[in-house]
Design goal:
The protein has 94 residues and is α+β, with helices and mostly antiparallel strands. It has helices spanning 11-22, 55-92; strands spanning 2-7, 28-34, 42-49. Strands 1-3-2 form a 3-stranded antiparallel beta sheet, with helices on one face. A hairpin with a 7-residue loop joins β2 and β3.
């Protein structure tokens, strides 16, 4: 088991990484995070793997997947926003 400390992070990142780790299936035996105290600016994440991947590799893989998913979300949102602006321009005639 490994414990990682993320400075200046909270439940937002903790839940994203934890959920992503859980999606890896049997490679991850345990993952969880905690915020020791709301006034403390860090998050602790514990990860235990089956040995086919190290906890460090699992965290890196999860972070890369979160970044990729957020990039896809950003592109799709921008595309839809631009399409909405085009559609509204056509209706309003502006």
């Amino acid at each position: 088991m490994a414990v990682f400390r993320f400075a200046k992070e909270d439940h937002t990142l903790g839940n994203l990484i934890n959920s992503t780790l859980h999606s890896f299936g049997r490679q991850i035996l345990f993952s969880g995070y905690q915020i020791p105290h709301p006034n403390e600016p860090y998050m602790l994440m514990r990860v235990r793997t089956d040995g086919s991947i190290t906890p460090q590799e699992a965290i890196i893989k999860a972070c890369r997947k979160v970044i990729n998913d957020l990039n896809i979300l950003s592109r799709e949102f921008t595309k839809e926003w631009e399409l909405k602006k085009i559609a509204n321009t056509g209706v309003d005639g502006a």
